[in-house]
Backbone:
């Protein structure tokens, strides 16, 4: 067990004067249960209920007043209701839609209790004929481990301390770059990190990756509404990890005979599991913006380590010195996206990329981020700044003159010029600083006039 930064967010939730029951989202095996159990050490009493167990599910499904439900719950665990500061964790809540509906009563009638629920495919519960407690619960998202958490899991305390400084010292660049490449290789799944930390053996990870992917397939299939949908889901899971970072079409996805409508519905189901995300491009260079759902989406998988395993490139990543040289730079791009997403716990947080598609030419920028009223382009690419053609097209059309590039070199802010002649500031950042992008932008970009 190693520290997860989401525990700080759980503390903030617990300190709210108008606290509501918390629904913790995230793909299976990202460490939700472990994090809550670590957080539970700060309470006088911790009650853990797993609704995959019929006897624990039945506590919530009887027809009796809510106060009696609480009496039955505390009787079941053999504790007094006034035992002190109490945290109740309801795991696998998707197995009981009625329990989800009952969360409102913890807010309305038992606000002295701290309640966290977790489960997969919770949108399916929302689709059922229940009274979903809108406005009576709040949500938080948990992602695979970030690079910062990776450093802690590996016992790299000195590197973690240097990484956490406001200005990461340049003398730590080589060490942090090597550690980040290792993180980009194995990914951020807790079980993987625990194994590698104790054994330092890459080959021992293969069976873990395989069992994770198998368990995801088996879990999602339980929610398929038909045998054909099960077939589509199996195909996507067997194929999607190898397509990570690519723009896709639903029609005949992965060299299949399946039609667009069938694939899109199956992808929508898988998005609910948070295993993958269809990222649609934006075409604006300023705020506000909306993703263009008519254009081809880019496929983002929640963990890059699983991508590397599926592609069979773990060995190449281990041997290659520079991350941006592997798989045409797609792994570097993908892990940067994972870091950008992983440092937010909001269900509203998304990652976006930019495209300009015209008959005579097209341009695509890897990511765009909102900052102080501006939409900042972010490229993941090595080489000279003059080669960033798509980035230049974005900057030329933007009402500001800032851009970001992640690469293998050290941090440097340079005065640059687009091919069309517009002067702009390019913030060059090593890959390992992707998780600190917000702080770096704050330090370098002044307030919008």
Residues:
């Amino acid at each position: 067990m190693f520290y997860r930064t989401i525990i700080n967010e759980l503390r903030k939730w617990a300190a709210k004067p108008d606290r509501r029951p918390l629904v913790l989202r995230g793909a299976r095996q990202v460490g939700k249960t472990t994090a809550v159990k670590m957080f539970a050490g700060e309470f006088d009493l911790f009650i853990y209920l797993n609704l995959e167990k019929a006897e624990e599910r039945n506590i919530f499904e009887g027809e009796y007043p809510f106060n009696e439900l609480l009496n039955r719950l505390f009787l079941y665990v053999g504790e007094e209701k006034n035992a002190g500061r109490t945290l109740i964790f309801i795991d696998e809540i998707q197995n009981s839609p009625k329990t989800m509906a009952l969360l409102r009563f913890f807010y309305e009638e038992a606000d002295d209790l701290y309640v966290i629920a977790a489960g997969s495919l919770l949108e399916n519960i929302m689709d059922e004929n229940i009274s979903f407690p809108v406005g009576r619960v709040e949500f938080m998202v948990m992602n695979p481990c970030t690079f910062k958490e990776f450093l802690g899991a590996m016992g790299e305390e000195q590197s973690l301390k240097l990484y956490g400084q406001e200005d990461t010292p340049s003398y730590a660049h080589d060490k942090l770059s090597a550690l980040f490449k290792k993180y980009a290789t194995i990914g951020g799944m807790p079980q993987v990190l625990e194994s590698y930390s104790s054994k330092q053996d890459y080959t021992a990870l293969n069976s873990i990756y395989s069992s994770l992917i198998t368990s995801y397939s088996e879990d999602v299939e339980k929610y398929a509404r038909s045998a054909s949908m099960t077939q589509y889901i199996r195909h996507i899971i067997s194929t999607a990890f190898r397509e990570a970072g690519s723009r896709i079409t639903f029609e005949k996805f992965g060299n299949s005979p399946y039609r667009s409508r069938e694939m899109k519905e199956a992808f929508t189901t898988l998005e609910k599991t948070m295993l993958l995300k269809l990222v649609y491009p934006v075409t604006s260079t300023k705020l506000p913006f909306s993703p263009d759902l008519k254009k081809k989406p880019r496929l983002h998988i929640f963990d890059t380590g699983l991508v590397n395993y599926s592609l069979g490139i773990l060995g190449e990543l281990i041997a290659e010195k520079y991350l941006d040289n592997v798989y045409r730079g797609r792994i570097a791009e993908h892990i940067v996206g994972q870091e950008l997403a992983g440092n937010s716990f909001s269900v509203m947080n998304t990652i976006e990329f930019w495209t300009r598609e015209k008959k005579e030419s097209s341009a695509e920028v890897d990511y765009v981020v909102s900052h102080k009223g501006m939409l900042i382009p972010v490229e993941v690419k090595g080489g000279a700044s003059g080669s960033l053609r798509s980035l230049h097209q974005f900057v030329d059309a933007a009402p500001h003159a800032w851009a970001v590039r992640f690469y293998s070199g050290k941090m440097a802010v340079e005065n640059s010029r687009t091919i069309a002649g517009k002067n702009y500031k390019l913030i060059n950042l090593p890959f390992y600083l992707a998780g600190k992008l917000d702080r770096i932008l704050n330090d370098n970009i002044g307030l919008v006039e």
User: Anything to note?
Assistant: The mean pLDDT is 92. Residues 352-444 form one domain.
